[in-house]
Design brief:
ten-stranded mixed beta sheet; 12 strands; alpha/beta; 13% strand
């Protein structure tokens, strides 16, 4: 009888604790909604619940301004040195941040803060949507970037845009990892400090990264199997105008067997990435010290043309005998353009001066570009 009483008391206490937790969570969510129009983020924690220090932290954003995000898949974040630049990575059409963990881990090891961000990348590919309509590309990319310029091609709202998701992801990370230095990527008004952000992406995400570099002055841009924004003599109209980020801070890589190769190389030419000698060709060897090609074409035998398009950066990339990705030397070379690692100084003429993890840019030198 005594044991039954004790069990009953324990059950009541657990129920009270659980109820109190739910009430507290609801109060917090209501306060967030009152403060800034968004509900509390829904997290799926991996590793230390207090922050992604040295390992990936998975989470999902809740609704923003009362709007439920679609799609709403796991974002991935991690950091090592609080002073490292941020790598913002955008997946390919219908792909998820979870499919790029090998590359994101490589960036983490190079001293970056890392954010693999989910965004609107459903439906048809950008290249399949726009084809030979030169103006369509920028219209769709701008809409997905900040929610402006909706059209029959793309109707992302401002709340669901890349800019909005980014701001809320940074707020979430700053709340959960206050010692992580996440807040420095936005200002007090929630503007984005693009000057310390390297935007990167695969396929459609790489094209979006190139577009963001066009409309904002970013620290750098990395494009994998992208942009796929030309068709014959036609290419995205926005490529005809000088961008906010110089070509010297933009790099692209693809495999020679990629099914979209001609459309990608046409985009590289339009952006001025290939120079007079064309892309740098290699297998897995990075360019020699002092060389700084901005377009790299591999010949790795990554599979059939469709696989070649994906395996340049996805987790399906082939592995060497020691279990490391065969693309690792080239990934590291690209990442080193914008950061220094201990014992491995940044190389290339376009490496950002003073961009080592131990010397973050001072406030006065930050870009005034805001979104």
């Amino acid at each position: 009888m005594k044991h039954r009483v004790l069990l009953a008391v324990a059950f009541v206490l657990l129920l009270a604790i659980g109820t109190g937790t739910v009430v507290a969570a609801n109060v917090l969510a209501a306060q967030r909604l009152a403060d800034d129009g968004r509900t509390a983020a829904q997290e799926r924690t991996r590793g230390d619940e207090h922050g992604p220090d040295g390992e990936f932290h998975r989470f999902r954003l809740g609704s923003i301004a009362g709007e439920r995000l679609e799609p709403n898949r796991d974002d991935f974040a991690a950091r090592t040195d609080r002073d490292g630049p941020l790598l913002l990575f955008l997946p390919a059409t219908r792909a998820k941040p979870a499919q790029y963990q090998r590359f994101l881990a490589t960036a983490l090891g190079d001293g970056y803060h890392v954010l693999g961000l989910d965004y609107w990348n459903l439906g048809k590919t950008l290249s399949g949507t726009c084809e030979a309509d030169a103006r369509c590309y920028g219209q769709v990319q701008r809409n997905r970037f900040d929610g402006s310029r909706p059209s029959r091609f793309s109707q992302v709202t401002p709340a669901g845009s890349i800019v909005s998701r980014f701001r809320n992801a940074i707020e979430y990370l700053d709340d959960h990892d206050p010692d992580g230095g996440w807040g420095r990527f936005v200002d007090a008004r929630e503007g984005i400090d693009w000057s310390d952000i390297v935007v990167a992406g695969h396929s459609q995400g790489g094209g979006e990264a190139a577009y963001i570099a066009h409309v904002r002055s970013v620290r750098g841009s990395l494009m994998f199997s992208s942009p796929v924004e030309s068709l014959g003599a036609v290419h995205a109209a926005w490529m005809d105008r000088p961008g906010r980020t110089p070509v010297a801070r933009m790099y692209a890589i693809d495999d020679v067997r990629d099914e979209f190769g001609p459309r990608i190389r046409g985009s590289w030419t339009a952006l001025g990435l290939t120079g007079s000698s064309g892309p740098f060709r290699t297998d897995t060897d990075p360019p020699l010290a002092g060389a700084d090609p901005h377009a790299i074409l591999t010949d790795l035998g990554l599979g059939d043309p469709g696989q070649s398009h994906s395996r340049i950066v996805k987790d399906s990339t082939p592995l060497a005998a020691d279990g490391t990705p065969v693309m690792l030397p080239l990934w590291e070379w690209l990442l080193h353009r914008f950061t220094n690692t201990p014992g491995q100084p940044g190389v290339g003429s376009s490496a950002v001066p003073g961009s080592g993890a131990s010397t973050p840019p001072v406030e006065a030198s930050r870009s005034s570009d805001r979104s």
